[in-house]
Amino acid sequence: MEHIFINERKKEMLVQKYKDMLSAKSVIRQLSEFATARGQEIGYENVFDYSLGNPSVPVPQEFTDRMLHMLATKNPMELHGYSPSLGITSVREKIAASLEQRFGIPYRKEHIFMASGAAGALAHAFRLVTEPGDEILTFAPYFPEYGPYVNLSGAVLKVVPPNTETFQINFPAFEEMLTDKVMAVLINTPNNPSGIVYSTETIQKLTDILKKKSEEYGHDIYLISDEPYREIVFEGVDAPCVSKFYDNTIMCYSFSKSLSLPGERIGYVAINPACKDAEDMVFMCGQISRGIGHNCPPSIIQLAVAEVLDQTADLSVYEKNMNLIYNELVALGFTVVKPGGTFYIFPKALEEDAVAFCQKALKYDLVLVPADSFGAPGFFRMAYCIDTEKVERSLVALRKFVEAEYRK
Predict the structure, then answer these.
(1) Which one of 205, 209, 356, 368 has the minimum C-beta count within 10 Å?
(2) CA distance 359 to 361
(3) Which pLDDT does position 136 carry in this prediction?
(4) What pTM was computed for the model?
(5) 239: phi > 0 → left, psi -120 to 50 → alpha, else beta; which?
(6) In what order do the strands lie in the sheet with 112-115?
(7) Which CATH number do you get for residue 187?
């Protein structure tokens, strides 16, 4: 009997970490659900929902045309069967050629692994370069899901505090936290949630430090570059290719934002050809898939994106929306760093408690996301991937909110 009770206790321990997560659900998702429910009451067009980073511009017509053509002409088994473990060879070849042409780095298919979006790419990258207990550093403000992404891999995520003046890297804090336990540094540029793009100066300084510390500690420190917003960079902004600066770079990319395909879950891992054991790492990704079930993304979507690699959706609306919101925020007295890309803006709240600030905004049907979970308390995020007409109407509500709550 005692033996049975011990086994039951062990079973409870196995699932407890996931039970614990139930009390720490994504704030973004909770607010998005609130916006949906509120929309059923007053019409969603009257809810100014800045919660979720869901692309709002249509997929390129050529992507749709290619899909229709393939469905009409290709063998169904080619379109709907399992792809090879590493991804469809012709697709990997085309992605490698596109990257080489764009960035001057000699990628080949052996450096490309197809994944289920950037999240799937990151899941493989973390397991490629860390053992359980190893540390990965990232920089606040950061995407909150990095926590479970990293920690449930067995590695430990450590977050470098933000430089709230510019949202470039806080180098003094970074160097203090860069111990010999760190096996990888995770960056996201253009950045969710700040909208900031790391400058050439920032990337150069970061990689110089990593080279120095790798030599000092006697082991490689990998740079994992999460790049789903790579194509959403505004006019005149310095947006360097991270992989050109550091041999041990693992690029994680998604077509979700560039082609407005978040629901299709397609992306890739690109190992810098100069990275130590680069070609082995792609084959290792195939083995990692066996353990996490994150394998063989849809064949038809792989084939379709390969036909439009050098295209994007019409991303210009995001810069237009950004300028409208940024100018209004500044006029209303907000402290805000102007975004260089993405479809996010990251102002400082008008009171110390950003959660309370965002709660008050709900009374005006403004759905804003407090940034405590992004590692930057006191700030909030607006995802302005919504119709420009709705942005313009939301500014009326924003002015009313500020006047009523903070200028009494």
Answers:
(1) 356
(2) 5
(3) 98
(4) 0.93
(5) beta
(6) 112-115, 267-271, 249-254, 222-226, 182-188, 135-139, 156-160
(7) 3.40.640.10
